[in-house]
Design brief:
Shape: globular
Distance between the termini: 30 Å
Helix content: 25-40%
Radius of gyration: 17 Å
Largest sheet: 5 strands, antiparallel
Number of helices: 4
Strand content: 25-35%
Order of helices and strands: HHEEEEEHHEEEEEEEEEE
Structural class: alpha+beta
Length: 248
């Protein structure tokens, strides 16, 4: 069931979203050559807890970490590990924090040192596709309008749109209705209403859109081992548009 959030719920979601934004900001100086991804996970957990919040992902359906950290050809849900970031990597960091029972969720893909032009292209246009999707949001628009805009933009740039994974509603639960696919048709799907809160998150590949799941039952990787990027914001639908709750 799709729920409309009360004023008090929106206030709590905005605080949770800001904690997520602040966690990204806190981690950025550490995202560099020579750091282990598990060290980033520990830094994030300590920071989130220091802000009177808890890591939403840790323990969610058995997920054992604070962050989803996905490097290069990993699309989403990668495990933090002893992998040491190196020059030329791209790394997606997905952060979700729960404040007084309400969640904020945002992913961003970062460069490590100097990356090649193909990776720069992927990151630039995946981020832009997120904002193309967000432009469609206002009361009375439909979920399909968001996916259509993202997919159309990515196809224009010869990028692969992952269809097995999607955005979602968010509130007192990490994943709520409706699903928010990164593809679709205009004027289809649930109608957006003022007070809805959703996470929009294009997951876009440099090569094929095809992906598969690793043996850990969490990490999704590209079928052709080409790099993937992931950008996500939690947004509130307003009468005339939207407000980003995980604002950068």
């Amino acid at each position: 069931m799709i729920t409309l959030k009360s004023k008090r719920e929106i206030e709590l979601l905005a605080i949770a979203g800001n904690i997520v934004y602040q966690t990204h900001k806190y981690l950025q100086p550490y995202i560099k050559e020579g750091i282990k991804t598990i060290e980033l996970d520990k830094l994030a957990e300590d920071f989130i807890r220091s802000n009177d919040a808890i890591p939403s992902f840790k323990g969610y359906s058995g997920f054992p970490y604070t962050l989803c950290i996905s490097v290069n050809s990993e699309v989403v849900h990668g495990f933090p590990s002893d992998y040491v970031l190196k020059n030329g990597d791209i790394v997606s960091i997905d952060i979700c924090a729960c404040y007084k029972g309400y969640h904020g969720d945002s992913a961003w893909t970062y460069t490590v040192g100097e990356v090649d032009e193909e990776k720069k292209f992927l990151l630039e246009h995946t981020e832009k596709s997120l904002y193309e999707g967000l432009k469609q949001i206002k009361e009375g628009a439909r979920i399909g309008d968001i996916g259509y805009a993202i997919e159309s933009y990515c196809k224009d740039h010869n990028l692969g749109v992952v269809k097995e994974l999607c955005g979602h509603g968010i509130g007192s639960h990490l994943h709520e209705a409706p699903d928010v696919p990164n593809y679709g048709k205009k004027n289809t799907g649930p109608i957006l209403k003022e007070g809805m809160v959703i996470a929009v998150e294009p997951m876009i590949n440099l090569g094929t859109a095809d992906v598969y799941l690793l043996d850990d039952d969490w990490t999704v990787v590209t079928a052709d081992q080409e790099p993937s990027a992931h950008f996500e914001h939690t947004v509130l639908i307003t009468k005339d548009g939207y407000e980003i709750l995980t604002k950068r």
